[in-house]
Design a protein that fits this description.
The complex is a heterodimer of chains A (about 260) and B (about 70).
Chain A: H1 7-12, H2 14-17, H3 23-32, E1 34-38, H4 44-54, E2 58-62, H5 87-98, E3 103-107, H6 116-121, E4 125-128, H7 133-146, E5 149-156, E6 159-165, H8 176-179, H9 192-195, H10 199-218, E7 227-232, E8 237-242
Parallel strand pairs in A: 1-2, 1-4, 2-3, 4-5
Antiparallel strand pairs in A: 5-6, 6-7, 7-8
Chain B: E1 4-9, E2 12-17, E3 20-21, H1 22-29, E4 36-40, E5 43-44, E6 54-55, E7 60-65
Parallel strand pairs in B: 1-7
Antiparallel strand pairs in B: 1-2, 3-6, 4-5, 4-7
The chains are: A alpha/beta (about 260), B mainly beta (about 70).
């Protein structure tokens, strides 16, 4: 790994390098890492900004939506004068302005069964901050097939959840389908545009998600593989509970039926 | 004669006739397992274990809602 840093890099990342757990080696790992962020929304906004600020060398942003006024109550990577712009491009502007040293790649497209494996396979770690279950299950299955670590956050109303899924890392590491075997039928679980979400809740969860991604890249601390972090903002209660593999899981269990993404249409 | 068991359900004590499996409790509570997961004693119970999980006196259960907003 390349451990040479320019004076500008040493200055910019000095507060990281000071940390014994990060140091020059950790900072070099961040620079070498390629992270894909699915969704440049409420979670993706702080996530992209903290990954860029931290010096994650390659950041991909997938989002095919355009910026709307109702996004700006929480999606703080964007700006009022960019209304109507593609959200991947808008977030890339903010990330590059914060740190021009990182390579920000925009993927203004909807992930589907035909493109997900290629895109995910060209990154090391995937972050899901998408706003719909179809994308969440597609990303989750693609990460299992491509053996990519998935750091997945979700929000609704005043609640947030966060977990890391990497069944390729060992028998105690579950996948997303170990927690939720299948998407809920349409209409059963509301989305943020139906039930609402407190903007700052997305900020906290996206920032926690960024923290877990940085830990995974640097290789420090106890990650959230095999655990689920649940935060209820109204009661100001955060807890982390065990999340075991489901031996009957259709994606990562011993009798898994997942072979490709054809079920995602 | 079955002994009653007292569970903590979302932090509230609840006395129920035992013995009781998790699947039976879920049915009694009318929970829709397509939109919730169940946590027992600080760990998620896999869906495939609902039928075989026997609840014990003092078990702490929490309902974890399935959310997917971003």
């Amino acid at each position: 790994m390349d451990l040479d840093f320019s004076e500008t890099e040493i200055d910019r990342y000095s507060r990281h390098i000071l940390l014994g757990e990060v140091g020059g080696v950790g900072q070099a790992r961040l620079r070498a890492a390629r992270v894909l962020v699915v969704g440049a929304g409420g979670l993706g906004s702080p996530l992209i900004m903290y990954l860029a600020a931290a010096g994650v060398g390659t950041i991909g942003i997938v989002d095919d939506d355009r910026l709307e006024l109702s996004n700006l109550q929480r999606q703080i990577a964007h700006a009022t004068d960019r209304l109507g712009m593609g959200k991947a491009a808008s977030a890339a502007i903010a990330a590059s302005a914060l740190n021009p040293l990182v390579d920000v790649r925009t993927h203004p497209m909807r992930l589907d069964a035909a493109n997900a494996l290629d895109l995910i396979g060209s990154y090391d770690i995937v972050c899901d901050g998408s706003d719909n279950f179809a994308t969440r299950f597609l990303v989750a299955d693609a990460c299992v097939l491509a053996r990519r670590t998935l750091v997945s956050a979700a929000v609704l109303r005043f609640e947030g959840q966060l977990a890391t899924f990497k069944p390729h890392a060992g028998p105690h590491c579950p996948c997303y389908r170990c927690l939720h075997p299948a998407p809920p039928p349409p209409g059963l679980v509301p989305a943020c545009n139906e039930a609402g979400v407190l903007g700052a809740v997305t900020g906290v969860m996206g920032t926690l998600q960024a923290t877990e991604v940085l830990k995974e890249i640097i290789g420090i601390g106890q990650g959230l593989a095999g655990r689920l972090l649940v935060w209820d903002a109204l009661s100001a209660r955060m807890r982390t509970i065990g999340l075991p593999r489901d031996p009957a899981c259709s994606a990562c269990g011993p009798a898994a039926s997942l072979r490709d993404l054809s079920a995602h249409g | 004669m079955a002994d009653p068991i007292t569970l903590s359900l979302n932090g509230e004590p609840r006395a129920l006739p035992g013995p009781l499996r998790l699947a039976e409790l879920i049915a009694q509570l009318g929970l829709d397992t397509r939109k919730v997961a169940v946590e027992r004693n600080r760990a998620i119970v896999p869906r495939s274990a609902y039928d075989t999980t026997r609840l014990a006196d003092g078990d702490a259960l929490e309902i974890v809602h399935f959310i997917g907003g971003g």
